[in-house]
Design goal:
Blueprint (H helix, E strand, L loop, with lengths): L5 E6 L8 H13 L3 E7 L1 H10 L3 E5 L10 H7 L4 H10 L5 E4 L3 H12 L9 E6 L6 E4 L9 H19 L6 E4 L10 H13 L3 E5 L11 E3 L2 H26 L3 H21 L6 E5 L4 E5 L5 H16 L2 H10 L11
Parallel strand pairs: 1-2, 1-4, 2-3, 4-11, 6-9, 7-8, 7-9
Antiparallel strand pairs: 5-6, 5-10, 10-11
Length: 340
């Protein structure tokens, strides 16, 4: 039972359209969830003025900001009172259940590791995101935190992604797959072959390799890859969805007859647009930390911010962090020290 409202810290100045888009999104999230409290982190003039008008919002003053172009780790070390560092500190100290920012992704990853801290045994945290498929969404990780990986990293991502799919998406026995260029165990790079062998031996529900074309079909509930490949695949899917929806819109307005057909199809097309829109999910968790840290798109608008808080609140209430920790506790401890 939830003994107190879910408390999510939000970076008021993170993102291309902050603070206006953030404040509008927070307003919508508070209206939609009566058990949500927001700790708005940022300049006094922004956060306390907002909190004065919203009973379930509290201002937390952070006098510094990390810009989108700054080097993440260096900025986190130099700007200890920035909104991103303060937000991660609120999670570390138990004052917030989660932290969301659409600001500098590198800084979010660095602050997550350096300030919030890793779960015991985690070698590298990974960004996991839900992707639309022809059925229920699937979780793909890593999508940007770790460009270079080893087989044991990918196997650990699989355990964390499996726990996230169970907790946040309600999938009792997730099907876990490795992204590769062929279905056979011997296909792909040496990394892919080594990861396949390790995952087959240690990951419950492992179904083998899937190819890029399988991502949108729902062939797996969790798809594991390195952060470079995962980020390329994610951006490709987002760009393709946007392009295809634009072409459908153009086709539906190309003639009088097409406009008549569009009027009939509009409800179905609106539903499709919503399912494919990345703003519907809003943020991706950095899995493997001692607390919940959610990373949003730099271009997040109000809808994306509101969606991020909805997803974050659900993850808190499903105890995602504890379930990820439990999933790793049953794995044989890694032979190496967690990496910086």
């Amino acid at each position: 039972m939830q003994h107190r409202p879910t408390r999510i810290a939000v970076d008021a100045v993170g993102g291309d359209f902050a603070p206006e888009a953030v404040l509008e999104g927070v307003t919508a999230a508070l209206a939609a969830d009566v058990d949500l409290t927001v700790l708005l982190v940022g300049p006094d003039s922004v956060v306390n003025a907002f909190a004065a008008q919203h009973p379930r919002a509290e201002g937390v003053v952070a006098d510094d900001t990390i810009g989108m172009q700054e080097h993440g780790a260096s900025a986190v070390r130099a700007k200890k009172e920035s909104s991103i560092v303060v937000g991660c500190r609120l999670v570390r100290d138990g004052e917030a259940d989660a932290f969301f920012s659409a600001g500098n992704t590198g800084a979010m990853m660095a602050a997550g590791v350096l300030v919030t801290g890793r779960l015991p045994g985690v070698m590298r945290p990974a960004i996991g995101t839900a992707l639309p498929t022809t059925g229920d969404p699937c979780v793909m990780l890593d999508v940007g935190a770790n460009a270079d990986c080893r087989a044991e990293h990918l196997a650990q991502f699989a355990h964390m992604g499996r726990a996230y799919a169970q907790a946040a998406m309600g999938i009792a026995e997730p099907r876990v797959a490795l992204l590769n260029i062929g279905e056979e165990a011997t296909k792909g790079s040496l990394l892919a072959q080594e990861a396949h062998a390790l995952m087959a031996a240690t990951v419950p529900g492992f179904i083998g390799n899937v190819e890029g074309r399988d991502i949108p079909t729902g062939a797996a509930d969790v798809i594991v890859t390195d952060g470079f490949t995962g980020n390329v695949a994610l951006k490709l899917m987002e760009g393709l969805s946007k392009s295809l929806l634009g072409q459908v819109r153009d086709a539906m307005t190309s003639s009088a007859a097409a406009k008549v057909a569009a009027a009939v199809l509009r409800p179905a097309l609106e539903g499709l647009k919503e399912r494919l829109d990345p703003d519907e999910l809003g943020a991706a968790p950095l899995l493997g930390l001692k607390g919940l840290v959610m990373i949003g798109h730099g271009s997040s608008g109000p809808r994306a911010v509101a969606s991020a808080l909805r997803v974050g609140a659900q993850a808190v209430r499903q105890d995602v962090v504890a379930r990820v920790a439990a999933s790793l506790a049953v794995v044989e401890p890694a032979s190496e020290t967690p990496e910086a």
